[in-house]
Amino acid sequence: xxxxxxxxxxxxxxxxxxxxxxxxxxxxxxxxxxxxxxxxxxxxxxxxxxxxxxxxxxxxxxxxxxxxxxxxxxxxxxxxxxxxxxxxxxxxxxxxxxxxxxxxxxxxxxxxxxxxxxxxxxxxxxxxxxxxxxxxxxxxxxxxxxxxxxxxxxxxxxxxxxxxxxxxxxxxxxxxxxxxxxxxxxxxxxxxxxxxxxxxxxxxxxxxxxxxxxxxxxxxxxxxxxxxxxxxxxxxxxxxxxxxxxxxxxxxxxxxxxxxxxxxxxxxxxxxxxxxxxxxxxxxxxxxxxxxxxxxxxxxxxxxxxxxxxxxxxxxxxxxxxxxxxxxxxxxxxxxxxxxxxxxxxxxxxxxxxxxxxxxxxxxxxxxxxxxxxxxxxxxxxxxxxxxxxxxxxxxxxxxxxxxxxxxxxxxxxxxxxxxxxxxxxxxxxxxxxxxxxxxxxxxxxxxxxxxxxxxxxxxxxxxxxxxxxxxxxxxxxxxxxxxxxxxxxxxxxxxxxxxxxxxxxxxxxxxxxxxxxxxxxxxxxxxxxxxxxxxxxxxxxxxxxxxxxxxxxxxxxxxxxxxxxxxxxxxxxxxxxxxxxxxxx
Amino acid sequence: xxxxxxxxxxxxxxxxxxxxxxxxxxxxxxxxxxxxxxxxxxxxxxxxxxxxxxxxxxxxxxxxxxxxxxxxxxxxxxxxxxxxxxxxxxxxxxxxxxxxxxxxxxxxxxxxxxxxxx
Lengths: 586, 118
Prior knowledge:
The complex is a heterodimer of chains A (586) and B (118). Chain A has helices spanning 2-12, 23-26, 34-110, 113-126, 160-167, 207-215, 295-298, 300-390, 397-425, 436-445, 448-453, 473-490, 522-525, 545-555; strands at residues 130-137, 142-146, 170-176, 184-192, 198-206, 223-229, 260-266, 269-279, 284-294, 431-434, 457-461, 469-472, 496-505, 508-515, 559-565, 569-577. Chain A is an alpha+beta fold and 586 residues long. In chain A, β13 (496-505) and β14 (508-515) form a beta hairpin. The longest helix of chain A is centred in the middle third of the chain and has 91 residues, at 300-390. Chain B has a single domain (2-101), classed as Rossmann fold. In chain B, strands 2-1-3-4-5 form a five-stranded parallel β-sheet, with helices on both faces. In chain B, β1, α1 and β2 form a beta-alpha-beta unit. The two termini of chain B are 12 Å apart. With 118 residues, chain B is an alpha/beta fold. Classes of the chains: A alpha+beta (586), B alpha/beta (118). At the A-B interface, α8 and α9 of A face α1 of B.
C-alpha cells in the first residue's frame, strides 16, 4: 500500500526536478534553472492572488473593530444615562414625598407616634422601600418613631448624617449599616417648628428596592451595573469587585453631571466603563452610578463571526495555494518538456548539420581527388602505351607490372570516390524504394580492405526474393553505417560479422547484425542508447553513434534491440516496416 | 575520325590525346571553351569530349553553342563528380556522362558506339 502511494508521489514529482546535468544538451535550453522558475511562479502567483484577500481582511477587521467600539461606547453611555435617571428618580421621589409629609403635617402631628405610623404605612403603600420613619429634634433626640426597630429615645447628635442634615435642608446618606446592622440609606428633611427651632424627619430606605431598580437595567452576563460613593467604595454589590462596602480603585476626575465613558482594564480584561454622578436639583447624593461592560463579552458575537470568517479565509487561502502549486507545476513541467524537446531537436539538428557538412566536405574532396587521379591514370596509361605500341620496352614485364599496379590503385581510388559521392548524394533523398542487399554491400565496400587486412569474415545472408523496402534510404544507410562501423571496431582479428535479413511478416523485415566481438558489459547495455555515453577513452568517440542510431530506427518506424555477452559477441536486431508510414517520419 | 577534347586539366587531355593517337584516333585538345569554339570553327569533329566543370564556358554551355554549328557532332561529358548518370540541368537524355578517372578502352568503345564505326 505504502509502495503504491510512493509510486504515486513519484509521478507527481515534477520531471524538471529529475533533470540531470548534460553539458551538451543544457546549452540548448532556454531556461536553465527550472526549480527557481517553479518557485518564482508559485511565489508571484500566490502573492498576486493572496495580497488583495489579505488587505481586504485587514480593512474588514479594522472597520468592524471601529464600528463595534463606537457602538459599544454609545450603548454604554445610553444605559448609564438611563440607569442614572432611574436612580435619581428613585431618590427624588422619596425625598419629595418626605418633604411633602413634613410640609403637610407639621411638627405637632409628626410628634405623634400613631400619626407617624400611619404616614409610614401610606409611604410604604405609595412608594415602597421605606423601612421606618423617625422625628428628631434639634438636639438629635428621637422624638417619634414608626417602624420595625424599636430605637426610641436614641440620640443621633454625634452621627455624621445628623450633622450633615442640620446643615442642609435635606440630606441623602451613603449606604451604611448603623445601629441595626442592615445596609440602608437615610433620607432626612429639615423643617422649621413654630417656635423658630427646627426638627428633622428621617426615613430609612432599604437598599433592596434600589438594587432591584438597578438590576432591571442590567443586560447580559458581561454587563454590570452598581453604585459607588465618591471615594469609590461599593454601595451595591458588583461583579468584579465583590460585596457591598468593598473599596475599589475607581477614581473619578471631575464632578460633572455628564455621563462619561472610558475604557479601563480590570484583572487584565478590557472593560468599557460608564459613570455618572447622581445628583439632584435640591441636594447632591454621594452616589456614582457605574456601568461596566466586558469588551470581550460584548465582542463575543463579532469574535465568533471573525473566527468562522478566519476559517473560511484559511480554507480559501489553502485552496488557492494548492491550485497555484498544481497549476505552476503543470505549466513549468510542460515548459520543461517543450524546452527539452526543443533542446534535443536543436542538438540533433546541430549533429545532422555536422554530418551534412562532413558529407559536403567529402564530396568536395572526392571531386578534387578525381582530377589528379585522371591525370595519373592517363599518364601511367600513356607510359604503358609507350611500351605496348612503340617497342621501347615491349618486353619489360616488370615495368609493365608496376604501371599496372599504379593503374589498379587509381582504379580503386576512383571506385571509392565514386561510392563516396554516391553515398553523400543520398543525404537529400527522401523516401524511395531501397534494395537492402545493395545498400548493405555499398556500406560494406568501405570496410572491404579492413576486412581483408584483419581477416574478418563477413557474411551477408538475404533470402531471394527479398522485398524492396519503401523507406528513407539515407536514414537506413546511416543506421547500417553506424552499426557496421561499431561491429568492425568491436571485433578482433579473425572474427566473424554476420548480417542476416529475413521477412518476418508481410509488413516487416528483421535485420540482425551479429559479431563475435568483445561484447558489451551488462551494466553498460542499458546506457548505450543514451547520448554521449562512450566507453572509448581519450574522447575518441562522441558517444552519439548509437543514440543517433536508436533515434533513426525510431524515425523509420522500427525497433532496435541488443543482446550481448561480454567476450562472446553482440547482436543488434532491427525490425523495420517494409513500407514506412510517412506521417511518422516528420 | 577526329575528336575534340576540351578540359582545363591540361595534362589529362594531353595524355589522353596522345594515347588516342596511338590507337589511331586523331584528337585535338582545347583548354578552354573559347579555344574549343575556335578549333571547331576550323575543323569538323565527329565527337567532342567535354569536361562539365570548366572556368568560363562550362561543358554543358559549350555543347549548346557547338550543336547548331555542327548538327552531326556527338558529345561525351566527363565529370569528376560521381558516377555515370543523367545530368539534372536540362540537357538531353542522349548525352553520355563518363566519370574521372577515365578508362581509355571504355572511352573508345563509347566513341565507336556513337559514330557507328565499331
